[in-house]
Amino acid sequence: MTLCKPLLASAFATLSMLAVDASAATVRVTCEVRPSRSKISIDGKGLAAGTYTTVAVSGANMASHPPVNTVGDEIETDFDSNPRDIAQGAAPIAANFISGGQVTGKIVDAMGNTVISDTVACRIRRR
After folding, report:
1. Which long-range contacts (CB under 8 A, 24 or more apart) does 84-87 make?
2. Domain boundaries, the chain
3. How far is CA 106 from CA 3, 10, 116, in A?
4. Quick one: CA dihedral 64, 70, 76, 82, positive or negative?
5. Which residues, listed in sequence order, are joined to residue 41 by a DSSP beta bridge?
6. Rounded to whole angstroms, how far apart are CA atoms 88 and 25?
7. Positive or negative CA dihedral for 67, 99, 93, 35?
8. Along the 127 residues of the chain, how does pLDDT read in single tens digits?
9. CATH number given to 24-124
10. Would you give the end-to-end CA distance of the chain in angstroms?
């Protein structure tokens, strides 16, 4: 019986840590580059309720998306050089924004702290 208490306490502590990890913020960054277009999406999950800004960085280029509020625990933002996508809410970027075929996407909280970021290789389309 005395052995059961330490095992239960250890199991509880382990499960508690897993619960914290399960709710941790995640980010998905996708990007595509064409000869005349750059396109980036930065999506976050597991975020605390609030307002966040996303930042896209590629080479010496940097762009920020206007602040967005979480829906549930998620945000979705887009950056694009296509005028139609910009008219639908994407943050404008130059057609040659993506440099070196990769992008770093960051989610920044209202206090200016980077919550999470990731660097990904972009899909390259030749036309």
Report:
1. 85/39
2. 24-124
3. 47, 36, 6
4. negative
5. 30, 78
6. 26
7. negative
8. 454 455 444 444 443 443 334 459 999 999 999 999 999 999 999 999 999 999 999 999 999 999 999 999 999 999 999 999 999 999 999 999 999 999 999 999 999 999 999 999 999 998 7
9. 2.60.40.10
10. 70
**Which residue reads 């000869």 in tokens?**
35
Distance from chain centroid for Cα 85 = 19
Q: Structure tokens of 24?
A: 């941790």
Do 39 and 123 form a contact (C-beta atoms < 8 A)? no
Task: Give this prediction's pTM.
Answer: 0.81
Q: Which residues pair with 78 in a beta bridge?
A: 41
Q: Is 100 left (phi over 0), alpha (psi -120 to 50) or beta?
A: left
- Tokens 């994407």 correspond to 90
